[in-house]
Q: What sequence folds into this?
């Protein structure tokens, strides 16, 4: 697990928590939920970026933080002189003090770690429905990245491969002829996503994007950009080329000639590809340590091995029943042995649904008959409470049961405490109860 400390950043006064596989942050508006989510997203992205670069030498500390955390996540006015962030994960440990003091160190097992797919799904996701949005000169931030990802993802679904949106009786597809995100209604009518309800504008990009990052990318080979491919090849083969030069097998002139170097890297790539194909048939025969290291590194950094998804306000513009269905859908899709999930929410209905999923996990062994389990509609959404942390934000701090700081609102079984739900319901019904006294007696 990873630890996260945040002090004096935006509305956050002080938190010190151990992140779980699945983390849910609930609280009122402007309580700091998104601030935490953005810092977690940056931390996971930074781990991936450093793994891809296989080191930290490329980082200019002040510029790096300004561009990749503050500007990218729109946190310009959130940092003060006494702001502090410390993240300690499996790959790296870093600290940020103020706006520009940044220290970072790699963990001992750094070289054996694998990269993941990092995805941030912002609350403003319905902006992708605006006609011509791709032509606007957007700043380099998380919304722009989400939009560019969407422009790649939505083309995977045409009229013959439409995407079912939960149990709502509607399908989504991209109409290539009209270059339009399209909704096919249950009665056969067609409307653009731009003219659809606010609920559909929120849920369609969320469901389609989420499916892509937890399912599609693992069932297909993603195209790697030319720039990224060159980075990968240089990282993987540069040490081998230097070793070959030391042994006198190649000379400096080859390494200085970019064309010859690329040809040599191409030949080495072909060789290692064939070795990878042949390795299962080699039996007890062993590859050389340098070739094994190349194959391992290439596998570790050139494809995702898990997904880390951050979702802001999944309940946005949705009816309570649809919120429940959506939560079940997200947890049914995610690989619970591999992926990480962060959700920020205002909605107790999201928590009710999550509690059902955790309770299902706890009682599954007590259900005697298989057909009884099969009859439970959300059985694929059950999740082990040990892997879930539900955090409540109040006044810039995380407050758990019995008002203990930096603790979850879960009981000893991992279920969300009845005290929490009782408090929420009491807040809702107090005004009603006060007015009951004025109903005249019959």
A:
């Amino acid at each position: 697990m990873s630890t996260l400390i945040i002090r004096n950043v935006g509305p956050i006064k002080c938190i010190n928590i151990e992140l779980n596989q699945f983390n849910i942050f609930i609280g009122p508006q402007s309580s700091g939920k998104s601030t935490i989510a953005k810092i977690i997203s940056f931390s996971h992205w930074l781990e991936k970026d450093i793994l891809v670069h296989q080191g930290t030498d490329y980082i200019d500390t002040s510029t790096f933080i300004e561009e990749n955390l503050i500007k990218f996540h729109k946190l310009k006015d959130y940092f003060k002189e006494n702001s502090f962030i410390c993240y300690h994960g499996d790959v790296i440990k870093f600290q940020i003090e103020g706006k520009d003091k940044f220290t970072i160190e790699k963990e001992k097992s750094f070289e054996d770690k694998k990269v993941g797919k990092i995805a941030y799904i912002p609350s403003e996701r319905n902006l992708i429905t605006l006609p011509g949005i791709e032509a606007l000169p957007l700043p380099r931030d998380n919304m722009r990245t989400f939009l560019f990802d969407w422009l790649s993802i939505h083309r995977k679904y045409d009229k013959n491969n439409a995407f079912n949106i939960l149990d709502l009786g509607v399908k989504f597809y991209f109409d290539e002829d009209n270059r339009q995100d399209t909704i096919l209604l249950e009665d056969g009518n067609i409307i653009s996503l731009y003219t659809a309800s606010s609920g559909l504008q929120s849920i369609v990009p969320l469901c389609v994007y989420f499916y892509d990052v937890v399912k599609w990318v693992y069932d297909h080979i993603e195209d790697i950009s030319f720039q990224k491919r060159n980075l990968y090849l240089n990282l993987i083969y540069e040490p081998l080329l230097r070793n070959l030069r030391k042994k006198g097998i190649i000379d400096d002139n080859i390494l200085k000639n970019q064309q010859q170097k690329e040809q040599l890297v191409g030949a080495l790539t072909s060789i290692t590809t064939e070795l990878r194909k042949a390795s299962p048939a080699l039996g007890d025969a062993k590859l050389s340590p340098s070739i094994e290291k190349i194959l391992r590194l290439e596998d570790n950094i050139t494809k995702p091995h898990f997904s880390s998804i951050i979702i802001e306000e999944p309940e946005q513009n949705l009816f309570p029943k649809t919120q429940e269905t959506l939560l079940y859908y997200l947890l049914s899709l995610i690989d619970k042995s591999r992926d990480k999930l962060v959700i920020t929410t205002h909605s107790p209905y999201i928590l009710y649904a999550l509690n059902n999923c955790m309770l299902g996990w706890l009682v599954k062994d007590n259900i005697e008959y298989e057909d009884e389990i099969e009859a439970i509609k959300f059985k694929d959404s059950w999740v082990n409470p040990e892997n879930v942390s539900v955090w409540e934000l109040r006044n810039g701090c995380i407050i758990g049961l019995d008002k203990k700081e930096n603790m979850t609102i879960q009981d000893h079984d991992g279920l969300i405490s009845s005290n929490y739900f009782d408090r929420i319901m009491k807040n809702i019904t107090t005004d009603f109860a006060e007015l009951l006294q004025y109903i005249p007696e019959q």
Summary: The chain has a mean pLDDT of 87. The CA atoms of residues 155 and 181 lie 9 Å apart. The two ends are 61 Å apart (CA to CA). DSSP finds twelve helices and 15 strands in the chain.
